[in-house]
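About this split. The held-out portion is used to measure sequence recovery: a designer receives only the structure tokens and must propose an amino acid at every position. Recovery is the fraction of positions where the proposal matches the reference. Here is one held-out target exactly as it appears in the evaluation file.
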């Protein structure tokens, strides 16, 4: 079955935006969520994450389409579709914009399920507070302050598909139980790379909020 022209154009635009963003980032450091490793075993870790702010949006679609659908509106937000009147030069994407503020791209892009829908989020740069961060023009985007939290993580390479996510989530859940932790929240699927990155070089993670069992 042929892909509808509108859907093809949307996916093509998303791919171009991602490529531009990550090509720019190859010559400069992309900010990542800050954490301290509490426990490590092969590609599995328990991490203590610093507080952070995320911009997130909810989409009602299939697992593998959720990121593509949500990315466009989140990318527009960090590229200037917000209510700030500040002009500022940023690093990724590179440039200046008047009457709206561009925000650095950070890593990872997170995806988690809630009430049968997918919540996709961008972590905001650490220089912002809830008072200073530009407010989105798109009311489908919400800003949320995430407190310090402990997360169990499994890191893996491979395609962006549900089978890889489910396989690694199951392994992580088993490890959490073996190490005397209990899950306290929903799993998050985290992606760090652009679509043109070869599948075997991609950094993917499943993250699960945890606490030590009593």
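Reference sequence for scoring:
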């Amino acid at each position: 079955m042929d892909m509808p022209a509108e859907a093809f154009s949307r996916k093509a635009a998303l791919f171009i935006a991602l490529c531009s963003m990550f090509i720019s980032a190859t010559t400069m450091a992309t900010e990542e969520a800050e954490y301290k490793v509490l426990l490590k075993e092969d590609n599995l870790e328990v991490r203590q994450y610093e507080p952070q702010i995320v911009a997130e949006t909810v989409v009602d679609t299939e697992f593998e389409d959720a990121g593509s659908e949500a990315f466009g509106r989140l990318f527009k937000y960090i590229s200037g579709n917000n209510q700030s009147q500040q002009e500022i030069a940023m690093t990724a994407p590179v440039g200046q914009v008047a009457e709206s503020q561009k925000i650095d791209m950070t890593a990872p892009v997170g995806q988690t399920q809630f009430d049968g829908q997918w919540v996709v989020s961008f972590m905001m740069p650490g220089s912002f507070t809830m008072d200073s961060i530009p407010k989105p023009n798109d009311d489908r985007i919400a800003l949320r302050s995430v407190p310090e939290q402990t997360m169990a993580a499994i890191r893996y390479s491979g395609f962006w598909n549900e089978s890889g996510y489910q396989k690694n989530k199951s392994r992580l859940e088993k490890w959490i139980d073996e190490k005397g932790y209990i899950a306290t929240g929903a799993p998050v699927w985290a992606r760090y790379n652009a679509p043109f990155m070869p599948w075997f070089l991609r950094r993917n993670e499943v993250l699960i909020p945890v606490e030590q069992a009593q």
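Annotator remark: The chain has one domain: 5-212.
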